[in-house]
Amino acid sequence: MYIHKQPHPIYSRQHFIAVVAQASDTMDSPVLFLLISLSFSLMSSSSSLDTIHEGTSLSIEKLEDILISPDGVFSAGFYSVGDNAYCYAIWFNKPSRGKNQTVIWMANRDQPVNGKSSKLSLLKTGNLILSDAGKLTVWSTNTQSLSSVHLSLYNTGNLVLKNMEGITLWESFDFPTDTLLPQQLLTRSTRLVSSRSQTNYSSGFYKLFFDNDNVLRLLYDGLDVSNIYWPDPWLVSWEAGRSTYNNSRIAVLDTFGNFNSSDNFTVMAADYAPKLHRRLKIDYDGDVRLYSWDDEGETWFVSWQAIQKPCKIYGICGANSFCSYIVGSDRKCSCLPGFKMKNLTDWSYGCEPEFHLSYNRSESRFFQLPHVEFFGYDYGYFPNYTLDQCKNLCLQLRNCKGFQFTFSQDDGFSKCYPKTLLLNGYRSPDFPGDLYLRLPKQNFFSYEKSVQDFTLVCSSKGTVQLDRTYKRSRENGIVKFMLWFACGVGGLEIIGIFLVWCLLTRTRQASSVDKQGYLVGITGFRRFSYAALKKATKDFNEEIGRGAGGIVYKGVLPDNRAVAIKRLNEPNQGEGEFLAEVSIIGRINHMHLIEMWGYCAEGKHRLLVYEYMEHGSLAQNLSSRALDWKKMFGIAVGTAKGLAYLHEECLEWVLHCDVKPQNILLDSNYQPKVADFGLSKLQNRNIENASFSSIRGTRGYMAPEWVFNLPITSKVDVYSYGIVVLEMVTGKGPTKGVDAIDSGGETEPKRLVAWVREKRNEATAMSSWLEKIIDPLLEGSYEKDKMEILVTVALQCVEEEKDARPSMSQVVEMLLRQEIDSHSDDHGVNL
Q: Given 568, 591, 611, which residue is the final one in a domain?
């Protein structure tokens, strides 16, 4: 495992600004003023303190390329959002206690750039562009001007592009991300969008915007569903105190703590008064909060928030899960009985069933979950239904997941709500109703413990005074003294044993953390003991594959789930591979990437537990010739999607470096999942010092860059992907050679790529050479148009010059475009 990391110049730059800001608050000295002035004067020949002019580029690799507002409060520059991933951002210079600087705007939040060779350039045409290492423009202002332009960062935190005439061509205030600053307008054409999480700055699921009724609203725009959740959607506008009789659709925050909206919504901060720094933000959890800066405490504090009960925010825990309150106003998410988390690191994906429900009336039973409500997604409202009538109704409805039932003791009135989807769930003692969850009758009793957990009541009303009388006997002083003495000695012994046990346990745990260092990487995964995995594999009896780091065995967990267990072989090498796989896979999730369920780190043993793929590897299916054309094309598209995600969508910029049929696994529906990427090189997209001795690849699938010790980029995976596609199409391996007839009439071995190119060059038409290279076992049962584009794309992927190869996202686009065209035209040809 080789990990190449760039230094973090942006962190050092931000830290420097923070130190200067803190020092300026606590010291008043001519010497300090001179030092600060000198420090800033040394920063950049390419930019002034708060302004840059046309023809200037700010480099990600230069510490001095940063803009600072005249009052020193705000900075604009490249901000680290991941390993070698950066966004151009504006941040508040003073770090909140124990935290980094507060980011208030980002240009490219959903498309970070490389930490090397990326630039922000102000062109002479008047356009401001952000270019990635490959000179690809990832963001721009799309402006132009005949006169010269300049970019300035104002004291308000607004980044403004103006021309010589003083006309504003572009300003960051017109394009907010998740934060609104004082004097910044929220209009009909702008919206605040939350971040994905506390550490992931990309666009999340929550939005604050003006709807078509001119009302300011909060929207949950999730993975599968979308809903308004503030103001309460069951209220008409006037009941929520809002007015639709306006057409301005405008809201603004002032420095006193007033937030006024044209729909009559008004907020006054709890600390209403002139404040130097305030901000309104839609947080990653879907709540809108007004923050004020406390100079003494050096921290932001909440002076208002839109939703006081966070469990009422839509989609906060995903489907099939519910939210409950713990200490104070904190909350936690839990799966419903019989369900498990879909993504161990992200609750927004919700939970999925661990059972199969046929929706047959005789095979279903209902579990009562007291004080649990799931609001929304009802089949309808059925008043005055009895509990049995509500159960029968749910059993009769197609795909009814359960029902909500409430009964009022006061008036004897009941309410029945059958559910089409279990989303927006929360548990509260104040809620008078119950949820009845539909689950299979089989294994019914295995869920009883979960149900008991719901019914636990820790109320004083549940205690009963025992009606017991007894007669007090005559006291014996000596016996009483001996009894107390024995109890005291025994108590001291127990306390001593307990303290020794705690000390030994803590020492053992500390030693384990120091030696292994796995706690950060493995958070969220289940930890298995070595004995449990040995039992699951029947003493590692059934081998199903071999990878670069170890052998893979089939196993069955106690809950009857089939798993693939990878046993890393060499202890020294295995530890590094273990850390790499767990830390990387913990942050990466995609439908075409293999999913890891758990791990074992016990003594010298390092094991990884993966989901089991019913149809094995692509290599096995190619050997058995079990794939038809439709499955082949689906595998090609799915594999390309998985690699595109690794290269361009996740922040770690993962290169696989060993793409081959053995590392492409197929599930029960022959959907491909790329495996073994946890052992890949987690590195920048342009590594100039890659060592040939440390390469990880397979002969025949390796790009020419490896052999000639050239810089390694994501294009090595593109090359390997092209070889895999050609192998699928032709039925011929890349290393065994292809028999071809030379000019003398004798056969000679040729490599697969050379042989395919030769057939293409010899042919006068596409169809003629395709017939010569396509695997005869396909028997002409393929779609001509799709096959042509698939082979053409594969040949582009195996170009000798890496820059001539497409990116994996371009491969996906070309293949999907052909698939869409063929569906829309409905003229696929079967030869």
A: 611
Angle of helix 784-797 relative to helix 808-825, nearest 10 degrees, comes to: 170
| Catalytic status, residue 658 | yes
Considering the chain, what is the average pLDDT of its residues? 79
How much is the pLDDT for 797? 95
What pLDDT digit, counting tens, does each position of 688-737 carry? Answer: 444 333 455 788 888 888 777 777 888 999 999 999 999 999 988 886 55
**69 assigned to some structural domain:** no
Report the alpha-carbon distance of residue 704 to residue 398 in Å, rounded: 57
Q: State the pLDDT at residue 586.
A: 61
Answer yes or no: are the C-beta atoms of 755 and 798 closer than 8 Å: no
d(CA 439, CA 401): 8
For the beta carbon of residue 535, count every other beta carbon within 10 angstroms: 14
pLDDT over threshold 70, residue 469? no
How far is residue 711 CA from its own chain's centroid? 29
Q: pLDDT tens digit string along 70-107?
A: 999 999 999 999 888 999 999 998 876 556 789 999 99
Angle at 553 between CA 552 and CA 556, to 5 degrees: 140
Beta strand extents in 612-723 (DSSP E only): 664-666, 672-674
**Active-site residue, selected from the candidate residues 50, 287, 658, 775:** 658
Q: What is the pTM of this model?
A: 0.52
The one-character DSSP state at 649 is I
DSSP classification of residue 270: T
Q: Residues 200-233: pLDDT tens digits?
A: 899 999 999 999 889 999 999 988 888 899 998 8
Answer whether residue 470 is part of any domain. Answer: no
In this structure, the strands spanning 596-602 and 605-611 are: antiparallel
- The rounded distance, in Å, linking the Cα atoms of 829 and 629 is 13
774 and 634 in one domain?
yes
CATH number at residue 774: 1.10.510.10
Is residue 721 within 8 A of residue 808, CB to CB? The reply is yes
| Nearest alpha-carbon partner for 323 in 426, 424, 422, 423 | 426
656 and 794 part of one domain = yes
Cα 407 to chain centroid, rounded: 41
Distance separating the N- and C-terminal Cα atoms of the chain? 46
Query: What pLDDT is recorded for position 94?
Result: 82
- 566 labeled part of a ligand binding site: yes
The pair of three-digit structure tokens given for residue 264, joined into one six-digit string: 């009559």
**pLDDT band at residue 588, thresholds of 50, 70 and 90?**
confident
CB-count exposure of residue 210 (10 Å: 0-12, 13-18, 19+): buried
pLDDT surpassing 50 at residue 660 = yes
> Based on the domain organization, do 298 and 341 belong to the same domain?
no
Give the range of the structural domain holding residue 339, as residue numbers without chain letter.
312-456
Quick one: 219 and 346 in the same domain? Answer: no
Cα–Cα distances (Å) from 355 to 224, 283, 359, in that order, read 21, 35, 12
Q: Is 429 left (phi over 0), alpha (psi -120 to 50) or beta?
A: alpha
CATH code at 430?
3.50.4.10
pLDDT of residue 560: 87
Farthest-apart Cα atoms in the chain, separation? 122
Contact 720, 703 (CB under 8 A): yes
Task: Tell me, yes or no, whether 265 and 367 share the same domain.
Answer: no
Q: Of 155, 136, 148, 133, whose CA–CA distance to 71 is shortest?
A: 155
Tell me how far apart the alpha carbons of residues 182 and 104 are, in angstroms, rounded to a whole number.
12
**Sheet strand arrangement including 382-383:** 364-370, 434-440, 402-407, 414-419, 382-383
Q: Are strands 266-268 and 67-68 parallel, antiparallel or unpaired?
A: unpaired
Nearest to 51 by CA among 127, 151, 130: 151
Buried b (16+ CB within 10 A) or exposed e, 176-203: bbbbbbbebebbeebbbbbbbeeebbbb
Which of 577, 594, 611 terminates a domain? The answer is 611
Place of tokens 């019913």: 614
